[in-house]
């Protein structure tokens, strides 16, 4: 019988944390928006609104703004559901979403590969939907944005080719068809992970 002092803390549940991740150009944000519309009205599903250490940008995801000082304070005091840093910014899934998971609900959050282990360690059920596409399609989508140099695109593609390893409950969704087909694949994946 394990000693009470060495026992691992119980994981948070019984609800689910669903993290949607994927390389730039994969269409993750488009599919998440369409999935949110599809699941509108489902009382047991909530889409997390992230807080990010950047000012609001009409061309980017709708998010709450957080100062760097506030980000550091929240992370250091463990007052977050999940937090990570990427591209020089801090990202937070607010702690209030843990209450939904405690109540048995499902939280769907725009995530990062950097936070997958943290989520797997914290939640009874952590599901990862990896939205991706072949390299040539990613390259075309990134180039069409006109926001990055060819060097930046190539760097992104090098990273995009690295898929998470040893991640439980990871479901790969190749987004090469219509938005409807992508959402259908996401819904199917969520159904497969249901009790």
Give the secondary structure arrangement, pairings included:
Layout: E1 12-21, H1 28-38, E2 45-47, E3 51-52, E4 64-65, H2 68-76, E5 80-86, E6 89-94, H3 96-102, E7 106-110, H4 116-122, E8 123-132, H5 135-145, H6 150-160, E9 170-174, H7 179-192
Parallel strand pairs: 1-7, 1-8, 2-7, 3-4, 8-9
Antiparallel strand pairs: 3-6, 5-6
Helix pairs in contact: 1-7, 5-6
CATH class membership of the domain at 14-49 and 103-192 = Alpha Beta
Radius of gyration, CA atoms, in whole angstroms: 17 Å
How far do the termini sit from each other? 29 Å
What number is the mean pLDDT? 84
The best one-word shape is: globular
Give start-end ranges of low-pLDDT stretches.
none
Strand order of the largest sheet: 2-7-1-8-9
Specify the structural class.
Answer: alpha/beta
Question: In this structure, how is the largest beta sheet organized?
Answer: 5 strands, parallel
Order of helices and strands: EHEEEHEEHEHEHHEH
CATH superfamily of the domain at 14-49 and 103-192: P-loop containing nucleotide triphosphate hydrolases
Please state roughly what percent of the residues sit in beta strands, choosing from under 5%, 5-15%, 15-25%, 25-35%, 35-45% or over 45%: 25-35%
């Amino acid at each position: 019988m394990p000693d009470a002092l060495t026992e691992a803390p119980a994981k948070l549940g019984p609800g689910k944390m669903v993290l949607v991740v994927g390389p730039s150009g994969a269409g993750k944000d488009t599919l998440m928006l369409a999935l949110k519309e599809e699941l509108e009205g489902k009382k047991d599903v909530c889409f997390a609104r992230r807080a990010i250490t950047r000012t609001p940008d009409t061309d980017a995801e709708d998010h709450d703004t957080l100062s760097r000082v506030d980000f550091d304070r929240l992370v250091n005091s463990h007052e977050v559901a999940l937090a990570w840093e990427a591209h020089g910014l801090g990202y937070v899934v607010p702690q209030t979403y843990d209450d939904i998971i405690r109540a048995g609900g499902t939280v769907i959050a725009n995530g990062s590969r950097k936070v997958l282990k943290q989520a797997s360690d914290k939640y009874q059920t952590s599901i990862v939907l990896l939205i991706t596409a072949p390299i040539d399609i990613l390259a075309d989508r990134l180039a069409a944005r006109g926001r990055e140099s060819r060097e930046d695109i190539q760097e992104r593609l090098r990273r995009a080719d690295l898929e998470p390893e040893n991640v439980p409950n990871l479901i790969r969704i190749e987004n090469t068809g219509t938005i409807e087909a992508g959402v259908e694949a996401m819904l199917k994946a969520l159904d497969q992970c249901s009790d």
